[in-house]
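3.2 Worked example (two chains)
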Amino acid sequence: MSMVAAQEAGNKKIKKTFVLDTNVLLHDPQALFLFDDHEVVIPIYVIEEIDKFKKDLSELGRNARTVARHLDGFRMEGNLTKGVPVNGAGKVRVAITSMDLPPEFQSEHSVDNRILAVALDTQKHTSDRTVIFVTKDVNLRIRAAALGLNTEDFDSERTDISELYSGVAEIELPGDKIDAFYQNGRLPLDDPYYLPNQFAFLKDASNPAHTALGRINLDQECIEPLLQSKEGMWGIRPRNREQSFAVDMLMNDNIKLVTLVGKAGTGKTLLAIAAGLHKVTDESVYQRLLISRPIFPLGRDIGYLPGDIEEKMTPWMQPIFDNVEFVMGLSRSERKRGRSYQELMDLGVLEIEPLTYIRGRSIPNQFLIVDEAQNLTPHEVKTIISRAGDNTKIILTGDPYQIDNPYVDSTNNGLVHAVNRFKTERIAAHITLAKGERSELAELAANLL
């Protein structure tokens, strides 16, 4: 081969074959289209597993039905066993195999074994491409690697939670500049290389007690004071630095997407609810406060509970009810007399719904809080945010360390994905809450256990 021919061959894009596991498609039904011009292989056993989810009322069921529709569309375009063109030079095909795994791998994981066998068979009969088995199952990746397969997790943007954007910049300044910030209500930025709506913790290098809090305004290239309410938000006031930052972005009507990340007891949901009620009732900026959260056990674990769907939902929505009633300041005697969050719902001020019911709606003029957003996939978060109508503000709250969804983890869930994607946008803001304010015991539990 000549030097020129070798260079041309080296410049050619190496084609790959990706064999997908079931959880990849349930995580993101659009995964079929995300492998550019490479080949995507779907083991027939994956389709059998997806079929088991198609009647579920959960997000998994919805994703399963979407995958089935995509595959049926491919079937109408050509022969799925030979491959149907997608993304131009790419293709999708369905594969089956009679190959058996080594005896050491024979176990109760019968479906997983058949999927692995398809991947091995594909690798055996593919000489011109690199074959990669893609799954979100950690144990299955280990087993696949032991069989000699190239394996990858399905995730284009993994983020170590310890490296997640905090939303705060600590800036050391001479004491006279901090004094000038208090006097003038603004401080010009010498260094404009910050992110939009990033918060600033100004520190005096010579006096650690001399500090100030502000928000970076890139349009004006300055640091501005935080928004504050003398009366608080329905009596709720920030108790620490991060909560002050959170209140600022919750009260700022120019910020349309707020992400609040923090462990249990840091006040994420409480501050969001208080701000929402303040904006709806006191300032009339929004028509309604809509609060929702994903219900993963829906359709599986609530069937044995008595009552109608609303009564079945109560155990999963109760944390929201408790926070609303705390903000309302209801005493024990008032609760005994029958006062509750229901009063706000009857007035049309408040609406509390499972996330399943929000999908497909257009939501204008509302203050929307999505609690426990760490349980959502990036695709689901995209679906929710795209529901926002004119003059709607969305708040995503959650703790990436407490995940119930088996198809996401702390590095690739929808909440973390939204933080990363929107941190450079002027209509979005983020803060990571670190200090627990629920109680001394709760803070110790969150840190020690």
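3.2.1 Second chain
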Amino acid sequence: MIEISDLHKSYRTGANSLHVLKGINFTVSEGEMVSIMGSSGSGKSTLLNILGMLDEADEGEYKLDGRVIKNLNERIAAKYRNQFLGFIFQSFNLINYKTALDNVSMPLYYQGVNRNIRTDKAMHYLEKVGLANWATHLPNELSGGQKQRVAIARALASDPKVLLADEPTGALDTKTSYEVMELIQEINDEGKTILVVTHEDDIAHMTKRIVNLKDGVIIDDSVVTQVRASEARKKQEVHV
């Protein structure tokens, strides 16, 4: 599904060059749930931006679903992003003046889907994340956990090949974080490929594989025994 080979990325900082990614190699198979960890400056955000076609590597190869992602103009990159990728952000990135339903249907609007069909699909995904009754509410009428559920529904609406989640629980308390991860695990159980960027060890262990970055290189890539978020939530509730 994702193949990264000898990926390098540098940024100019004045007269200097900062080498952020230094020969990254890894693959993600269809249906995997992988977390990418690393401290600030490790290169994980740069890697995610390249995976999300928001930036491009200087050297190396990135293949997504068998296609080489290179030298794309913005129109083609946007088309591929909409076709292949769903994004979940720490800050939710919802449009404040649009309802939950309209936010979820936005990717389908850009795909040119008929209004009635996109409304039906958006409602389906709001039901999936347990927010059908909140469809007409604006983001400022929703809790943080509800906003992230709307963001997940939006990410799923175009049926992407891969979900990229950038610190999806970073703005949430522990209980809500586990509820969101429970939903993300259920989506993965259905076969969706998911990459989660996180700095939280407990969240990383709710995936099935942890890739650790340090100073632009992968220092560890391990399959782990997945902690089910539902179980972690029950334990956390007992201790509160």
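3.3 Remarks
Residues 169 and 177 are 5 Å apart (CA to CA).
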